[in-house]
Amino acid sequence: MKAFSYILTFFFLTSCFEPRVKKVSDNIPVESDTATKQLSPNDRTPKESELDKTDMSYVNYWCTTDILRKTEKNIDNLDIALIADFLATFHASCNDNAEYSEWSNELLFKVIGKKPNRFLELISKNSSLSREHIIEELKSPIHEQADLDSIAIEIERLEIPNSEEWKSKIILSLEIAKK
User: Fold this and answer.
1) Using CA atoms, how far apart are residues 161 and 121, in angstroms rounded to an integer?
2) Residues 50/92, Cβ–Cβ less than 8 Å
């Protein structure tokens, strides 16, 4: 009987208190410098015309410079989780910040150059990413340092199940970028 009263007390106490969950967006620092300015979730909310096409599950990742910093710092030691986080930062709303867009574009080509297999795997399988936006980024590299030919060859050689559609889109984007 004593155990039963303890259980009832526990459930009563836990149900009386509202859990204190901190949103990821509460931890995003905002700096006044436009190169490192974070967008608030409201700034990242797509226009009504984009709502049907946008998966909101990554809204807290969009335009996040902390992830870009971490990706750049670990460019020689990329794992699939970091690449996934990095790809989740891409969204059309980030185009409003030229410095951010330039930095993310440059890193995109570095990431693909280092880990083309992981890039293709993630973009093929994760429909929550802004995949079409990433494909558009591939069409216009900011820096000419990217070796588009070797990236295209590496992507072409990969054999990842169910990736043919995205492999074709990537290669076509890289061909457009060379022009």
Assistant:
1) 9
2) yes
165 close to 136: Cβ distance less than 8 angstroms: no
pLDDT of residue 177: 94
Closest CA to 91 of 36, 136, 52, 143: 136
| Average pLDDT of adjacent 10-residue blocks, the chain of 179 residues | 48 39 34 41 44 64 95 98 97 93 96 98 96 96 87 96 97 94
Q: In terms of Cα–Cα distance, which of 160, 133, 153 is closest to 44?
A: 133
| Six token digits for residue 78 | 């990329």
The domain ranges of the chain are: 59-179
Let me know: does 133 contact 90? Beta carbons within 8 Å.
yes
